[in-house]
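2024-03-11 09:14:02 INFO worker-7 job=invfold-0412 stage=load source=structure_tokens
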């Protein structure tokens, strides 16, 4: 299995284990042996990215969990959705009304991907690190779709119970076969009324008063411009996707079970993907930081606690192969996900404090960190994460009121 290195750690003659992409474009293919020019170009173009490098020596010393299936499912699903959305956006740009568009092709494409994800369950929902800011409004809904379907499948029993209990409110048969297609459609089109404002996603500048009002109302506006034949459950989920479990969201300030269950799923997946879109917002977080804030921090109150607990085990904070600095000064490499706590993976200590490879006799582990509390993760990449493992009792901070946002990042996260 490869290890993940920061771009500034790359050296000539290292071999890429996975391609380096930007959105849907392949910049460098898997198997490429990097030369000096490649390294310089990557440092200039993708300075904050993590890159997968082949490490055959480590493969000989320890058995890594194989995440290739999870990556393949994610890649196939999101590629299909990206192209579907790109086609819809092209038609809208040609002044074709979405409300009266022939929706059969989109519905069929969505249903196929829903079935594919259902039939190909994953251990972890893996998103690309290399995103293209010029295609955010196409990549983001594809990512939210994928995350929502993986989460929806993982909590299918919970969804079915909620569906039966609240059937009369949402006008569907309680004993009907559960379909996640309305959730999928809602994920794709939740932000459709913001598509004409795409330039706002390329800046962290404060929103003007009129822009802020457009964003505040976009869940309602997006719902109203959806095609006539879209399932009503999808329309409701779109309306609710920025409502927070504690009542601090928008546009209506709904709370708890007032929020449609599919809307609660979208709320978590939308926030996480927006938070981790590094190339779009200056305020973006790493997956570990975002999950830490959502699950362990004050932001947890914004999300359905049952769904959030499952989500934290689906979107792992540390991917297989992550190189983590430890409290002993050395570096550990993630070989398996944590079974007890996603923030406590199984690692091997394989690099010295200066980043040099430890020999076969000096490499130690594997260590399940939930059984070795003396080993504490300090950082991943160039990000200090020690506060996520602090045992100090922090004062309960004031709730974050999502409806009082100043820019687009704050309108989606937390």
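2024-03-11 09:14:09 INFO worker-7 stage=emit residues=414
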């Amino acid at each position: 299995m490869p290890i993940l290195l920061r771009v500034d750690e790359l050296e000539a003659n290292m071999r890429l284990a996975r391609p380096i992409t930007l959105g849907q474009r392949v910049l460098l293919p898997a198997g490429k042996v990097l030369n000096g020019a490649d390294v310089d170009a990557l440092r200039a173009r993708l300075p904050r990215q993590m890159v997968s490098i082949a490490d055959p020596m480590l493969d000989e010393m320890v058995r890594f969990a194989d995440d290739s299936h999870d990556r393949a499912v994610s890649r196939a699903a999101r590629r299909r959705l990206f192209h579907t959305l790109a086609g819809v956006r092209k038609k809208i740009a040609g002044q074709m009304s979405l409300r009266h568009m022939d929706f059969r092709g989109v519905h069929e494409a969505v249903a196929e991907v829903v079935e594919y994800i259902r039939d190909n369950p994953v251990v972890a929902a893996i998103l690309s690190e290399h995103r293209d800011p010029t295609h955010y409004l196409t990549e983001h809904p594809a990512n939210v779709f994928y995350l929502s379907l993986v989460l929806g499948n993982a909590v299918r029993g919970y969804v079915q119970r909620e569906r039966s209990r609240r059937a009369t409110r949402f006008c569907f048969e309680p004993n009907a076969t559960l379909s996640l297609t309305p959730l999928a459609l809602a994920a794709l089109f939740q932000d459709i009324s913001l598509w004409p404002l795409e330039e706002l996603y390329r800046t962290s500048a404060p929103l003007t008063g009129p822009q802020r009002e457009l964003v505040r109302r976009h869940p309602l506006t997006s719902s109203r411009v959806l095609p006539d034949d879209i399932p009503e459950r999808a329309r409701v989920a779109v309306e609710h996707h920025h409502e927070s479990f504690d009542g601090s969201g928008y546009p209506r300030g709904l709370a708890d079970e007032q929020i449609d269950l599919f809307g609660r799923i979208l709320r978590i997946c939308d926030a996480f993907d927006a938070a981790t879109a590094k190339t779009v917002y200056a305020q973006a977080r790493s997956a570990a930081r975002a999950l830490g804030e959502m699950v362990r921090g004050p932001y947890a109150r914004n999300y359905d606690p049952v769904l959030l607990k499952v989500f934290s085990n689906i979107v792992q904070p540390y991917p297989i192969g992550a190189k983590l600095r430890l409290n002993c000064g050395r570096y550990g490499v993630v070989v398996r996900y944590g079974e007890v706590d996603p923030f406590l993976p199984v690692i091997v200590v394989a690099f010295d404090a200066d980043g040099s490879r430890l020999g076969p006799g000096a490499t130690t582990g594997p260590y399940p960190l939930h059984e070795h509390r003396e080993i504490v993760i300090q950082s991943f990449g160039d990000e200090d994460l020690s506060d996520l493992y602090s045992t100090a009792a922090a004062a309960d901070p004031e709730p974050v009121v999502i409806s009082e946002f100043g820019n687009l990042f704050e309108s989606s996260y937390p």
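2024-03-11 09:14:09 INFO worker-7 stage=report msg="The longest helix spans residues 68-93."
2024-03-11 09:14:10 INFO worker-7 job finished
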